[in-house]
Write a structure and sequence with these properties.
There is one protein chain. This protein has helices at 18-29, 42-54, 69-83, 107-135, 156-176, 197-200, 203-210, 221-232; strands spanning 9-12, 33-38, 59-63, 88-91, 138-143, 181-188, 243-246. With 260 residues, it is of the alpha/beta class. It has one domain (9-248): Rossmann fold. Strands 3-2-1-4-5-6-7 form a 7-stranded parallel beta sheet, with helices on both faces.
Length: 260
């Protein structure tokens, strides 16, 4: 099966590194025009745009803090001006925040995680749905995490935000389905990205991590990106309101493979 997104107008938030960068490249390879959203490291976003253009694709870099609704409105206005609308949104921007037990956490830091991970996804989905429901077509893919299902001590804001993204996905899917729009979520497990380099680059940390993954390896950003492309394509035309886990079996709780 050849997954194609020819002519589709896409936006990937947090698209200049890690999983976001891989998603941008996968969508462009499938034929989509891709807007690369960033909040830091503009040089990385611009390099990605130039790479796509060198391969005869179409892309642009857009600065916007997704937790700021006015910045999000401006970003979508820029896409309207350039491409006349949007067909695909990938809500990838997110942070995990500093490790802290809930009763020791800084309220402002806790709130920031929610504002980026949840409010950011909402702000962007809201703008996208205005356009998609009017044209009666479109797909939104929210990037969640295995931690929408698995508790993670020290990261209560992150887990709460991702569980909320899961329910946001289901509710938006229910609202938009009659108007021809699909809303999905993808939940990566342990993926080899710069943000978790301290884990996969350390042998002891890596050994501990692999005990949590039945496939006995961590995933690559491209493996998440390929699934996003499938979910966004007509190959998944009858799928909406669900989270797809790309986690090597982590949510299968391998510790129970030898009994309870």
């Amino acid at each position: 099966m050849d997954i194609r997104l020819d002519g589709k107008r896409a936006l990937v938030t947090g698209g200049n590194s890690g999983i976001g960068e891989a998603v941008v490249l996968a969508l462009a390879e499938a034929g989509a025009k891709v807007a690369v959203n960033y909040v830091g490291h503009p040089e990385a976003a611009e390099a990605l745009v130039q790479k796509i253009k060198s391969q005869k694709g179409e892309a642009l870099a857009l600065l916007a803090d997704v937790s700021d609704p006015q910045a999000v409105t401006g970003m979508f206005a820029a896409i309207d001006k350039t491409w006349g609308g949007l067909d695909l949104l990938v809500n990838n921007a997110g942070i995990d925040g500093a490790h802290a037990l809930a009763w020791e956490s800084d309220i402002a830091a806790w709130k920031k995680v929610i504002e980026i991970n949840l409010f950011g996804a909402y702000h962007c989905a809201r703008e996208a749905l205005k356009r998609m429901t009017a044209q009666k077509s479109g797909v939104i893919v929210n990037v969640s995490s295995v931690h929408e299902e698995i508790a993670w001590s020290g990261y209560s804001a992150y887990t709460a935000s991702k569980a909320a993204v899961s329910m946001l996905t289901k509710t938006l899917a229910q609202e938009a389905a009659p108007l021809g729009v699909r809303v999905l979520s993808i939940a990566p497990g342990a993926i080899r990205t710069p943000i978790n380099r301290s884990v996969w680059s350390d042998p002891d940390n890596m050994k501990d991590l692999l005990e949590k993954i039945p496939l006995d390896r961590i995933g690559e950003p491209k493996e998440v990106a390929q699934m996003v492309a499938i979910m966004a394509s007509d190959a998944a035309s009858y799928v909406t309101g669900r989270t797809v886990f790309v986690d090597g079996g982590m949510t299968d709780y391998p510790d129970f493979s030898h009994g309870g």
